[in-house]
Amino acid sequence: MISIDSKKLTEFAIIAGTIVSTYYLMTMPSPDAIGANFDKKAQAKSDHNVKRILQDNPGLAKNLQSLNTYEKKILADVFIPNEKSTRFNDIAGIDDILEDIYENVIIPLQEYGTDKKHLNHDLQERFGHIVENGLLEAPKGVLLYGPPGTGKSLTAKAVATECNAAFINISISTLLSSYYGESSKLVKALFTVAERLKPCVIFIDEIDSLFKTRSNTDHEVTSKMKSEFLSLIDGLETDGGILMMGATNRRTDIDEAFLRRMPKQYKIGLPDKEAREKILSLYIQNIPLEKGLSIELIAEYTSGFSGSDLKEICRNAVNNMIKEYRRLPSSQKHDVRPLTAQDFGLNNLPDFLD
Ligand SMILES: Nc1ncnc2c1ncn2[C@@H]1O[C@H](COP(=O)(O)OP(=O)(O)OP(=O)(O)O)[C@@H](O)[C@H]1O
Ligand SMILES: [Mg+2]
């Protein structure tokens, strides 16, 4: 007679239960799975973006036909720069970097689709081969790295505006959030949409969250997506038109294989005193300061502040002043008081003020 060991039976039941539920989770679409329920808000945004792109660029109508669901989802994250979009002159204190990006990235991208007109006839005759060999093309990848709040995302956006390119700002969580098997279709769609919209900048913020140095603990979906990504970057055509931009606070954590595909890398560090002055000027240039206070002095006492911190103290200062201004009786509304050191939260200044 077979004796049934109740402990073994329980163990067997637990193992069987785990296998069945894992299989269920892997195969059943999640409620926000793209195919069935491509979220209504994203769908509306995607349709809106397609309309806007076509308004500005009717010539793209052919390229935007028969989009698949994944491409539509990516199109929800496309930004088309307009006159109000961030430009290089909205960024201060990193002039050298912007100049280098202008020469090496913007000009070649702007010239995408043209016959490289900047080479005059004489140079074309002598060095035409450098055009054919692709030496004048924009690099495929640009990495911006450095501490938080230093203007990396801002710069990426401005690059798209300056070269009048579509800007796809995709987050790793969008790519990874979908259910099993969808991620790689979304990654493919990212590149096919970029191809349809050329010239186009694909911007991936916090790239370290995907391209951390490979480890054995990588989830299968993540490592598959990584290799897929790398091969799609390799497959980008050499005639330019698509630029990959990444930003990170932790360059040292990034996989070598990815870094190799980002030939242009710019470190954007915390601003020094001169750069802080430029950033402060950008925000409060025309606003009067109390006697004895100057932009130079504020810059001196904000060592270690990022561009974002500086913008924040300017915002606070201006808001303090405006709050009081609003409370003034209308007869005194012409008296806008100057900004004080205290408005900027600078209470440690030497005793220079009257
Ligand atoms: N150099 C700068 N000139 C003008 N504004 C700046 C500069 N740096 C930062 N800012 C301001 O700070 C905000 C935040 O900057 P941004 O998002 O580009 O930082 P980031 O480097 O991408 O930071 P993170 O690493 O946290 O993503 C910008 O929108 C801008 O308003
Ligand atoms: Mg950023």
UniProtKB/TrEMBL annotation:
SMART domains hit by this protein: AAA (SM00382)
Main subcellular localisation: mitochondrion
InterPro entries found in the cross-reference section: AAA+_ATPase, AAA_lid_3, ATPase_AAA_core, ATPase_AAA_CS, Mito_OM_Translocase_MSP1, P-loop_NTPase
Cellular location(s): Mitochondrion outer membrane
GO terms for cellular component: mitochondrial outer membrane; peroxisomal membrane
Domain AAA+ ATPase: 138-274
Single GO molecular function: ATP binding
GO annotation, biological process: extraction of mislocalized protein from mitochondrial outer membrane; protein hexamerization; protein targeting to ER; protein targeting to mitochondrion
Membrane topology: Single-pass membrane protein
Keywords assigned: ATP-binding, Membrane, Mitochondrion, Mitochondrion outer membrane, Nucleotide-binding
Cited PROSITE patterns: AAA
PANTHER family, per database record: AAA ATPASE, PUTATIVE (AFU_ORTHOLOGUE AFUA_2G12920)-RELATED-RELATED, FI08533P-RELATED
Family assignment from sequence similarity: Belongs to the AAA ATPase family.
Name assigned to this protein: Related to Protein MSP1
Organism name: Hanseniaspora guilliermondii
